[in-house]
Fold this sequence. Notes:
By secondary structure, the chain is of the alpha/beta class. The chain has one domain: NAD(P)-binding Rossmann-like Domain (Rossmann fold). The chain contains eight helices and seven strands, in the order E-H-E-H-E-H-E-H-E-H-E-H-H-H-E. The protein has helices at about 15-25, 35-50, 65-80, 100-130, 150-170, 190-195, 200-205, 215-225, and strands at about 5-10, 30-35, 55-60, 85, 135-140, 175-185, 235-240. A seven-stranded parallel sheet has the order 3-2-1-4-5-6-7, sandwiched between helices. Strand 1, helix 1 (about 15-25) and strand 2 form a beta-alpha-beta unit. The model has no long low-confidence stretch (mean pLDDT about 95).
Amino acid sequence: MSARVAVITGGASGIGRETCLKFAREGDQVVVADINEAKGLETIDLIKSEGGDAAFVKTDVSKFEEIDALVNQTVDIYGSIDVMFNNAAIGTLGHVLSLNIEDYLRVIGVNQHGVAYGIIAAGRKMRDLNVEGVIINTSSVFAYLANFGTFPYLASKGAVRMMTQTAALELAQNGIRVVGIAPGGVDTPIIQGYKDAGMTQKLTEQQMRKELIRPEKIADAVYLLSLKEADVINGSIVMLDDGYASFK
């Protein structure tokens, strides 16, 4: 398979970084997007140390103009865009009645609007270039399950679920697939608050195999979903949860 061009938001750490590494190891050209420039450049260094081809674009996904610029810069650098992985996400902890409204808007801005902007900007560019690409969005098991203390995060992931389904329906005429993933408990920086609260054991018990999922395992699945061999997977939210949602 010839090299593709993959854009990955949230590429500075966690699932994003591991997915950047996965695509690069498979021979694809990778654009690492993140608001954290220092950590994003670390991802670039890791890719290049293994002989991969990557570029970094500093991006605040909560701003459409920055997502649009990201997509345009990708095409300027590599000439195309084949895969868009809308993965960047943040979280906050606290009871819904005690929620700081600024924190709520910040989470919705990154997790929900950031995915919407990625779908729109990448979808337009793929259409204009006649690229039958794939857009992959990070939702969560918490698009299906209620949980304490994470109201804006759950709201945003539920929105990602429906945006994925609707965008898949509307972009099908352009040959563009849109797929979502729903990870369970993944050992990434976003769950640090739970760890700090002494909830690590509770988190591991939620998985069928009683351990947190490694982010590289999610990256492997995202790569598989991007392939032509996964062509019939469209408009679906694929559960990458080691059974988390199957016995609650």
